[in-house]
Specification:
This protein is an alpha+beta fold. About 20% of the residues lie in helices and about 30% in strands. The chain has five helices and ten strands, in the order ββββαββββαβαβαα.
Length: about 190
């Protein structure tokens, strides 16, 4: 069973409450890359864009991995999270085994040589961002539950079911969430 934390920190996972009705954040799992007094920054890790990376950019050749929707900010920009921080210069560690950024030339070279596979890297269109104290307000509004970040939440299989899997692991009091309608007004 996963136990919810009280407040977010860098590396935390945000689980959206089912009452959070928002095109991007409904039933979202967000990995916080940074959280501090200036604001917060992260990526929605469970929303595949239903398009392959190679269809939106040729920068990585025919690397045919899924593209994910990272959030509503800068959706025309590409961001990436990977597990190879030891070999990619300028990578920033989020949690053990999860890094964001790093030297893009090295990323490309590692992909072309097969040393970085789709099991090691996720690409995101856009990111999720909060201004100073905005996420704190949303926490007081009960928009999110915070759990400890884990590598498997970012790089695991079947990401589209991740929200449900995590909610079910929180215990019986959260189980009714999985049947909560997307639009409660339509209930």
């Amino acid at each position: 069973m996963i136990l919810p934390d009280q407040m977010p920190v860098s590396g935390s996972i945000l689980i959206s409450q089912p009452s959070l009705i928002d095109r991007f954040f409904n039933k979202s799992v967000v990995m916080l890359a940074e959280h501090g007094t200036d604001g917060s920054f992260g990526f929605i890790v469970n929303k595949p864009a239903r398009v392959k990376l190679s269809t939106v950019t040729s920068e990585f050749g025919d690397f045919n991995t899924d593209l994910y929707l990272g959030g509503p900010v800068q959706v025309n920009n590409l961001f990436y999270v990977h597990s190879q921080g030891e070999i990619v210069k300028d990578s920033l560690k989020i949690i053990e085994g999860v890094y964001w950024g790093g030297n893009i030339k090295e990323i490309r070279e590692l992909i072309f040589t097969g040393k970085l596979t789709e099991k090691d890297i996720r690409f995101y269109a856009g990111y999720s961002g909060w201004q100073a104290k905005q996420l704190d307000r949303e926490m007081k509004e009960n928009s999110w539950i915070v759990v400890n970040g884990q590598k498997r939440f970012v790089f695991g299989a079947r990401q589209s079911n991740l929200w449900k899997q995590i909610v079910m692991s929180l215990g019986n009091e959260y189980a009714p969430w999985v049947n909560f309608p997307v639009d409660p007004g339509m209930n």
